[in-house]
TrEMBL record, chains A, B:
InterPro entries: Tobamovirus_resist_UPF0261, UPF0261, UPF0261_C, UPF0261_N. It comes from the Eukaryota. This is Uncharacterized protein. The lineage of its organism: Eukaryota, Fungi, Dikarya, Ascomycota, Pezizomycotina. Signal peptide: none annotated.
Amino acid sequence: MPHIVLLGTCDTKLAELLYLRSQILESGGPTCKVTFVDVGRTPSAHEHIDVRQDILAIEYAPESGAKDVASLPRGEVIRYMIACATKWLAEAYTKGLKDPDAAIHGCINAGGTGNTSLASAVMREVLPIGLPKLIVSTNASGDMGPIVGESDVTMMYSVCDIAGLNYLLRRILSNASGAIAGMAQAYERSLAASPQGVNLQQKKRVGLTMFGVTTSCVDKIRDHLESNYDIECFVFHCTGAGGRAMERLVSEGVLEAVLDITTTEICDQLCGGVMDAGPLRLEAPLKAGIPYIVSVGATDMVNFGPRSTVPERYQQRNLYEHNPTVTLMRTNAEECRAIGDFIVKKIKHCTKDAAQVQVVLPLGGVSMIATPGGPFHDAESDEALFSTIRAGLKGSKVLIVEDERTINDQGFAVDVAERLIHLMGLSRMGAPQRMQ
Amino acid sequence: MPHIVLLGTCDTKLAELLYLRSQILESGGPTCKVTFVDVGRTPSAHEHIDVRQDILAIEYAPESGAKDVASLPRGEVIRYMIACATKWLAEAYTKGLKDPDAAIHGCINAGGTGNTSLASAVMREVLPIGLPKLIVSTNASGDMGPIVGESDVTMMYSVCDIAGLNYLLRRILSNASGAIAGMAQAYERSLAASPQGVNLQQKKRVGLTMFGVTTSCVDKIRDHLESNYDIECFVFHCTGAGGRAMERLVSEGVLEAVLDITTTEICDQLCGGVMDAGPLRLEAPLKAGIPYIVSVGATDMVNFGPRSTVPERYQQRNLYEHNPTVTLMRTNAEECRAIGDFIVKKIKHCTKDAAQVQVVLPLGGVSMIATPGGPFHDAESDEALFSTIRAGLKGSKVLIVEDERTINDQGFAVDVAERLIHLMGLSRMGAPQRMQ
């Protein structure tokens, strides 16, 4: 019995949403259920609307109090309805966790730019990664970074405007109905196969952060962990979204330990690069108190797009064109001190269990191109980073490990992996379990 | 019997692709069929691979001749395999049009950046809009403009790297299998309901191009056409992808007439704006010889993102901040001449049937903000545009209509709509059909 939540603005797109609803019911089969939630600006009346806009706007108003939605400016309407719909969906989702008959197996929306912002914010906030989410959008052939973020919202381009049920839009919405119904059924099957969700999984789940220039380190760690221990690795590319996804999966309880080899997103956060994971990087694993090893992979670089897009103020810096669409900038000593400071502050303020946290510094070089002879070799800047971390964490209970090797040294990789194993209290497969 | 094509690089991701294949077969039910095509760099051997990489690379080599794929640099490998896979898929798709037992109902791929580029290029090139396409990508939480383009490739973010079948990736791939199987089933149903595809549709299909500043014109036209004639309208936002989608749907035979009210994408093509539809804009409707009315809506503006992203060379120009993420630049007389030239050249070189083409110039103003008193009112630049078109098309058989009203004048909208009706040879609903 797949149960799908349909979010839509009924004041502007009722006919299209009703068509989508009918198609979902057809695709989902006789036991499929749709809960149709009106997130429009003004209330609409229709027998198929299950949660009316006025109920949402009043009974699910944010803490700050209910507002007269129709009188708000457009941007405010969206923010307000995000708050209301988030509150409603969180309640419905939580109810479904306790009562299988009310469980939610998918969430869908269709609309223009404003609609997409609204629905994606609600889905990202409430629904865990892995729970099917689909948005049909006039906007999907563009930059989806702010829309998808670190979540798995699937995006379908509507091609033409979602206004008027023409031949093409009917087909697109029909495809979307098949997609969400099929996803919801697959999700329901996977829940049934493992009713307690992740808890029944036997393998330990370890997150690893990677970049092109730290790949051989991360590949070696993954190989070592998966060959010798009952572990499955989750590798995240440090694209901004990748680091945030890793942190989110820690918060959701999916990841049980993290080897944060590559923390380059801090550079982009501080220097305005394109792979910025936001100001909260490192916080989730520290706050969770799980085994967590932090290194400084690729902190020699800030990422930009094509060379022409590198900001004016950086044009005279040491720039390296990785390919026509990726330009890297070498971080200087001042920036490296700031990066070190960022790491120190997060560890000092967010660490729940200092015994579970270690910082590993590969003194021989923090990336493939920062070793002697490489285009980003700069011992002075590296030392600014290392000494800031050393000084900042002096007297803390967090262990700092200094290793003369480079980050991609295969021995370094194995040793870091073994450090994590030790923190996790694991034994080799086949060997008796170590006391925990 | 949904039939789904699975494109994948088996040399690097065989285990993940085999898992995806098995999940699709489970989601699609007992009659579901998967054709698994290996688009990797080197051949892999597995009983479930239906089209081997070496067959693809040799028997479907491009006209320029077969190459030793493994010896090519990475970028070349992708280009070469795009050519081979495109040739194979075009053959398979065409075969399916003739033989229902071989029909294709969906296409899916999963992989990293290179994989996504490869698969999206093949799908965009071969498969019509409306035929289900899904890509699971490490890349989907980013700029999908170049990937989705004017097509309806649906994008699912893999969240973690597609390497190693961990708990999360299994769930994501399982969701993807449900999505493509469900879409393919919905598509198959919609084909069965209308076996000849678009040809059985009764209503005439008219494309309209729109921008925020020409919305009241386009809304009025749509209302007039749909209320009075057996017509369904397809509205396209001029986002670059939107204009290209309109042109593509003309080429695919979906649109039977076009009112190209808003040709602002030409400004972005010529001046480096963000809503560039490429250099081929206007060509498809002209070459198709269908009823086609071109106007100059929103040619007063080039689109950029936030003000800080407007190129240095334009910072002193007349800029208008529509909102924090959209900055408009007024086109000047020189640029307007170039825009006029673009329109003239396309009409001169691409028109198949001059009797079906008209150019309509709203002399009172080309957008909501270009009328007297508006921030982009500039009679001199407008006149540069109008006179270039007048002079350029002098002596051609294409009718130029000059109208003193503004583009958003409701009477102007109705008159333009009626011009198209006349070209299409339609009568009002209920009235006897006019002789064609």
